[in-house]
Amino acid sequence: xxxxxxxxxxxxxxxxxxxxxxxxxxxxxxxxxxxxxxxxxxxxxxxxxxxxxxxxxxxxxxxxxxxxxxxxxxxxxxxxxxxxxxxxxxxxxxxxxxxxxxxxxxxxxxxxxxxxxxxxxxxxxxxxxxxxxxxxxxxxxxxxxxxxxxxxxxxxxxxxxxxxxxxxxxxxxxxxxxxxxxxxxxxxxxxxxxxxxxxxxxxxxxxxxxxxxxxxxxxxxxxxxxxxxxxxxxxxxxxxxxxxxxxxxxxxxxxxxxxxxx
Length: 262
Fold this sequence. Notes:
This protein is an all-alpha fold. 70% of the residues lie in helices and 2% in strands. It has eleven helices and two strands, in the order αββαααααααααα. It is elongated. The chain starts with 7 loop residues before the first helix and ends with a helix.
């Protein structure tokens, strides 16, 4: 029966095995540790293939980086048309820009609690749903108050994803690729910023300057990544084996671990 303690292998070889106390998983020796039960970290002691399940999980989590970057990059192009449409002052424009970071702070503080309470995958789904709601509210806003409400929701969701996405990618990635795949989130954030600039450039030239369709299209396109992330979290992504094991759901943790690295 699995027990909640660090395995002897983890204590004897901390550089090759996990350093954190966590439930022992019934691996049947598949990890190469020679024991019937071992911690998930013992899989780090051997070569771990990059399986399709891992690629799918990391790919959808990686969309978080594109989403964050797009939301930061699109603002520079959308501010001018929005200011004219709502007839707002420069101070209100600065408030709109700063709202994203202002509400991202409490999102970061809540992110770790949410990850432990409902799981990494479910947490990403919640943040994607909030991001989708915020971007849709901004794209369809008819008043400055509605615009700011959507911006606040999107900012809170951004804070959540800053915590949840790297944590999830780290826990589902093979040990030897963990650093590479986690750092890809930063690369994809820059890709998202570039996409935001390109989208703003295209919308500004295709839509009439006197209409609101230009900035609404820019912000509306920002709803596509969170919609894709939400579908991926519901249909493709696996829950973190480490979180499942920490909740005593050993059979589910073993099944997820087998699909990811076994």
